[in-house]
Amino acid sequence: MSGLLDKAKTASSSEEKATKADTNQAKQASSAGLLKKSDSKPQKKQASKSDSALPKTQSSKAGAAPDGPDIPMILNLAGWIIIVLGAIFSLQGGGFGLIVVLIVLALGIGSIVQSQKMTGGISPLKTGISVALAFVIAVGPYAAIMIVPTNASMAVTEISIDEDEDTISFVVRGSFSDADAKIYVDGEQVWSGSKSMNNDRASFDVPIATIFQGNSLDYTANVVKEYTIEVESSDGQMITADIDPDFTTREVLDSGTRIFKVLKTGTRNNDGQTESYTYTDGLTIDAIVGLFSPSEGAQDDGGHSLDNLGLIPVTSDYSFQMTIKKGSSTQYVMPTVTVSGLDASWSSTFSGTQTGKANGWLGMPGTGLNDQSTEYLKKDDFYDDSGCYTFEIEVTNQYYAGDTATTYTSSNSWELDWNDDDSTQDAQMTTC
What we know:
432 residues, alpha+beta, Immunoglobulin-like, 7-stranded antiparallel beta sheet, 5-stranded antiparallel beta sheet, 19 strands, disordered N terminus
C-alpha cells in the first residue's frame, strides 16, 4: 500500500513539474513575440552554411548592386551616343578625317559589346545587327561625300553685274583650298582666273570688255549666244553656271524716231480787227534705242509702229546722237545722249543738264518749252521750207578692249510743209 502511494506521489510531482515547464515556455514565447514587435532595429540574419553554399549566379545581377546604377544600360546608351557623334563628324564632309570617324565608331561599338557581356553573354545576331547599324550611321555620310564626290559641296553664287565698274562678279563656295574659273562663249574659252579660298569662298570680278562677244538675246528675247562659268576645285570637283542673258546683251542694234507738232496761238491785226490764229512752232521729238523688230518703222502723221512693249532695252554703256537733214543738207545736230546702264543724260543748250531712262521712248533735247514744260525743237532752228526731212540716229557702242567702236544708224523721214499763218493749212506729215 505504501508503495502505491509513493508511486502516485512521484507521478503527481512529475506532472506538476511538466505543467510548470509548459507554462514557463508559453510565457517565454509570448515575451519573445512582444520583443519582436517592439524592436525597431531588425537583427541581421546570419548566413547559414547552407546559404553560403548556394551558387553566386543565384544572387543579384553582376555589375549592378541591388540599389545601384544599371551599368550595362549606361554602357549601351553611351555607345549609341558615341556613334551618333561619329555621324556628326562624318557629316562635316570629311573635315575631321576618316581615321577620327573610325576611332569614334570603334569606341561606340566597344561600349555596346561590353554592355551585352555584362548582361549574360553576347548574341552573335544582336551584335552583328548593332555593328552594321552603327557603321551605316557613323560612316555612311562620309562615304557619300568623300567616296562618291558630288557638286553638293561646291557652288557658284551671287552672279551679278556692276554697271559703274563694267564688271561681272561671282562667288565660288566650298571646302577646298583653290578654285580655277573659266568663262566660255558658245563653248569657246574667253577668260580664266584662279583664287585661293578664304573662309570657304572666293570672289571673282571679270571686266565685261574681256569676255563680250555679242548679244545673248535677239529682238525676240531668244538666247542666241550662251555665256557660261566653269569652276574646278583643287580637290577635283567641277561645276558650271550660266550668266544671266540680260547681263550679256550689251549692244544696241536698233533705234527709231517719232515727232509731234507743237502749235502756238498768236494774235494779229486784220483790217483794224484783232484776231487770233494757230500756227506750227516746231516739233517735240522722241527717240527709242535697244532691240526691236526690223519691220517696225515710221508711220504717217509723224508716228512710229513700235510701242514700249516691243522693245528689249539694252543695259550697257553707249551713246547716240540725232541729226536732222533735208535731203543731204544737215539742218540741226542735237546734243549727244550718253547712257550708262539704263540712265541717259545730256546737256541741253536750252535748259542745261537733263536725265532720263533709256528703256522706252525718250524725249529729246530742244530749244524751247511747250505748254507742258517739255522741251521741243523750234521751227526756226531747223525748218527752212517744205520738203522731206530725215531724223537720223547714230548709236555708238564701245566695249571691246582695244577695238574700234561699232556704230548703227537708223533713219525715219516725213514730208513737212507748214503754213506760216494757219496750222490748219499744213500738209499731212506723210512718210517719205
